[in-house]
Amino acid sequence: MMNAEVTNVVVKGGKIVGVKAKTKKGKLQVNADLVVGADGRASIVRQKAGLEVQEYGAPIDILWFRISRKKGDPANSLGRFQKGVIMVMLNRGKYWQCGYVIPKGNLKKVKAAGLPVLLKSIERLAPFLNDREGKIKEWDDVKLLTVKVDRLKKWYREGLVCIGDSAHAMSPVGGVGINLAIQDAVAAANVIVPAFSKGNVDIDDLRKIQKRREFPTKVIQKMQLFLQEKFLGKIVSGKGEAKLPLILRVMLKVPFLKNLPPRLIAFGVRPERVDVKVFPKGIGPK
Ligand SMILES: Cc1cc2nc3c(=O)[nH]c(=O)nc-3n(C[C@H](O)[C@H](O)[C@H](O)COP(=O)(O)OP(=O)(O)OC[C@H]3O[C@@H](n4cnc5c(N)ncnc54)[C@H](O)[C@@H]3O)c2cc1C
């Protein structure tokens, strides 16, 4: 249901039996045998369900803005590093989606220095943007994306399971959060669909989802925390050199190791496939 904002969960006898939501037409209650919390990093579902969160912190935030693309610009998405600054540029056809990394909580400082200082820094990082007049006109064109890394201790309780960022908020490092969210969804479907086709989903089914997905999530989050601490955080706070950590530089040079980081990012530690064998006839992909 589009434009329906979940505001609370409905609890009956200790079990979650649905959600309350706000829509343009008014308030709504949706009853459900199972609620799947897939509402992202600021999940209201996990909060209202009282699931305990473990925070791992992040030394960075991201300034998110667009700059137009021109003929002759590089075709690939780019990561640009210099002492004290990092910017990631994603090719989105007509424009570059830029992520400019700043130390956590430093937006006020960046704003106080003024827009021209930010623009100069962007030009130094990507000189081919020098001809983009009025690329950022005002601070309203720059959005702050707060970075956080956390994970639920328990991803479920009776009647509810959380997946994706709702179960484990991912840092943008490596651009893997979406992969993990989809893998969680596939793993959850492989458990939930056959369980419902036999009757109902019980707490053991929900436990299986966390059991399958927790380890791959932990590994990727540990990798993100390592890169945030040892690399990104140090560069943007001016304490580190603008080069990759030694272990990554070595890995990327050794032929049989250099495919490992991209494989890890693309497929994760535990790749998932929809298990058509366990799906009832007519449900799921052919
Ligand atoms: C700055 C930044 C850059 C990132 N870049 C990348 C990247 O390049 N590649 C990558 O793979 N990952 C990236 N990530 C991580 C990635 O965004 C997340 O890990 C991923 O989007 C998680 O998917 P999700 O479906 O769990 O949650 P989301 O994508 O956040 O989706 C949650 C959905 O729930 C909806 N919702 C929220 N609250 C409610 C509510 N109360 N009621 C109803 N609906 C609600 C939201 O509107 C949204 O549609 C980045 C993260 C950050 C912070």
SSE arrangement:
Blueprint: E1 5-12, E2 15-23, E3 26-31, E4 35-37, H1 44-48, E5 53-55, E6 60-68, E7 78-82, E8 85-91, E9 95-103, H2 107-113, H3 115-125, E10 143-146, E11 150-152, E12 156-157, E13 160-162, H4 177-198, H5 203-236, H6 246-253, H7 260-267
Parallel strand pairs: 4-13
Antiparallel strand pairs: 1-2, 2-3, 5-11, 6-9, 6-10, 7-8, 8-9, 12-13
This protein binds flavin-adenine dinucleotide.
Structure description:
It is globular, with a radius of gyration of 22 Å. The protein has 286 residues and is of the alpha+beta class. Helix content is 33%, strand content 25%. The strands form four sheets. A five-stranded antiparallel β-sheet has the order 7-8-9-6-10. Strands 1-2-3 form a three-stranded antiparallel β-sheet. The protein starts with a strand and ends in a 19-residue tail after the last helix. The structure holds flavin-adenine dinucleotide (FAD). Flavin-adenine dinucleotide binds at residues 5-6, 38-41, 44, 62, 99, 145, 147, 164-166, 170, 172, 175-179, 181.
